[in-house]
Amino acid sequence: MTNNFVNGVLKGDPLSIARVITMIENNHEKAIPIIKTLHRHTGKAHIIGITGVMGSGKSSLIYELAKKYREKNKKIGIIAIDPTSPFSGGALLGDRIRMMNLADDENVFIRSMGTRGMLGGLTSAVYDTINILDAAGKDIIMVETVGVGQAEVDIVKIADTTLVVLVPGLGDSIQTIKAGIMEIGDIFVVNKADRPGVEQTIAELKTMLDLTRIVTERETPIITTIARERKGIDELINEIEKHKKYLKKNNMFEEKRRKRYETELVEIIKRKLTSLIFDETNLKEKIQSLTDQILKKEIDPHTAAEEILTRVIK
Amino acid sequence: MEKKIRVLVAKPGLDGHDRGAKVVARALRDAGMEVIYSGLHQTAEQIVRTAIQEDVDVIGLSLLSGAHMTLFLDVIKLLKKHKMNNVIVVGGGIIPEEDVPRLKKEGVAEIFGPGTPTDEIVDFIKKNVKQ
Ligand SMILES: Nc1nc2c(ncn2[C@@H]2O[C@H](COP(=O)(O)OP(=O)(O)O)[C@@H](O)[C@H]2O)c(=O)[nH]1
Ligand SMILES: [Mg+2]
Q1: Is A196 on the interface with B (CB under 8 A)?
Q2: pLDDT of residue A286 exceeding 90
Q3: Which one of B3, B55, B130 makes the best mutation probe of the A interface by having the most chain A beta carbons within 10 Å?
Q4: Does A308 contact B at CB distance below 8 Å?
Q5: Where are the domains of chain A?
Q6: Residue of A69, A178, A253, A310 with fewest CB within 10 Å of its CB?
Q7: A67: phi > 0 → left, psi -120 to 50 → alpha, else beta; which?
Q8: Would you kindly state where each structural domain of chain B is located, as residue ranges?
Q9: Alpha-helical runs (H) found in A166-218
Q10: Which residues of A touch B38 (CB under 8 A)?
Q11: pLDDT digit string, tens, across residues B21-38
Q12: Is the domain defined by B6-128 classed in CATH 3.40.50.280?
């Protein structure tokens, strides 16, 4: 079975790709040997992260970028991540609405993902999904992340090139954006440039970038787009390609990859440890009885936690 | 295994109303499912290609026009062609009573008329999804 899936993915067969992603999302142990085998077939894709607040036009931009890349005959993978409801565990994944006509093109593979247990950050399921699409021969992989919280900062560890999408007329939003976001953007996009306030937004953005920029010889470009009218897309692709060349020229491409694998490795260890501890039978009862003891001051939470950990890790 | 039910809610055809589809989509999400909502005006080919990529367990088709018969049947035919035997297809919207037996015979799992309580749809999916 492993071989069938591996061969399917390597051939770019959509059904195989989709099934392996599902297995990964569901923590199906049969996926692990597949992922292991795929590793040496990865590393060719250019991974582009797209982040920014909800409604700023990320999905619309991805759609336009994908169409342009298709004209250049690039194969495309798209991962669109939306928040999972912490209450129901369900998710409404609506990014495809903006990308509908890509469904006619067999060289574009789109996958919608809920954040599930990601606690705001991105977990190894996203890394694995990128690796699957990479092994499947996608030249460009675009990852759209929810515009707030840890996911936004995590994307930079995954992507070779990170786009931060803003909209005009929200001067305040630039200032309230966490300092981190200024550092993660390789390219800033002011979308919805058909709206008033573009000049001001760009000016504010420039000021913020000057204040926070880590000293490099590279100026962070700001591109204005109107995704809805397909304006600015060529300029944006041009900047993305320029950034890739810049990374390669300065040996930063390898360096970024190295960081990504390091983060991925740590993520896998964390996940394995968590399941090692929480999948243990009787843990629930143990936690309940320890909690009772904590309540009665027979034990403190730290000692209780140590007691559980020593049970698992010997 | 933390298997989550994934549902594609699609609105084929040309009619522009998707209120009902959105209500159902939200109810399914609130029942813990992952709902891929793909918007209006979809062809059968687009729906099935999306279902494959998203690896859904259920396709929910919402229809308000008379063209439902061919669209439903096209989707089912394409699913069979791609050996997606694990996917169940349900329909909603205004579908003439006399068409229901034929649709079911061709492989539509259930038809939910207007005003069906969303709980009923949730229960049906949970009971019938092929895991
Ligand atoms: N006025 C205007 N609206 C846009 C533009 N780009 C996207 N939109 C609209 O903004 C809304 C949100 O877009 P979407 O791509 O879903 O944003 P996302 O949440 O960041 O993925 C949609 O209604 C789009 O049609 C633009 O350049 N100008
Ligand atoms: Mg989006």
Answers
A1: no
A2: no
A3: B55
A4: no
A5: 43-250, 265-313
A6: A310
A7: alpha
A8: 6-128
A9: 171-176, 179-184, 198-212
A10: 96-97, 100, 103
A11: 888 999 999 999 999 998
A12: yes
CB atoms within 10 A of CB A309: 11
Q: DSSP state, A45?
A: S
Residue A137 and residue A14: Cα distance in Å, rounded?
12
* Nearest alpha carbon to residue B74 among B8, B26, B1, B12: B12
- Asked if A145 and A152 count as a contact pair (C-beta separation under 8 A), the reply is yes
pTM to 2 decimals?
A: 0.92
A185 pLDDT band, cuts 50/70/90, is confident
Indicate if the alpha-carbon torsion angle A272, A274, A279, A282 is positive or negative: positive
- Separation between Cα atoms, residue A160 and residue B88, nearest integer Å: 39
* Beta strands per DSSP E along chain B: 6-10, 34-37, 58-63, 88-93, 110-112
Report yes or no: A139 and A44 within 8 Å, Cβ to Cβ: yes
Q: Whose CA is nearest to atom 19 of ligand 1?
A: A55
Which residue, by CA, sits nearest to atom 11 of ligand 1?
A: A55
User: How is A235-257 classified by DSSP, letter by letter?
Assistant: HHHHHHHHHHHHHHHTTHHHHHH
How distant, in Å, are the alpha carbons of B65, B68, B102 from that of B99? 13, 10, 6
| Of B94, B83, B33, the residue nearest B61 (C-alpha) | B94
Least confident window among A18-27, A147-156, A164-173, A281-290: A147-156
- Side chain identity at residue A220, one-letter code: T
Do B35 and A90 count as a contact with CB atoms less than 8 A apart? yes
DSSP structural state of residue B85: T
State which fold the A43-250 domain adopts.
Rossmann fold (3.40.50)
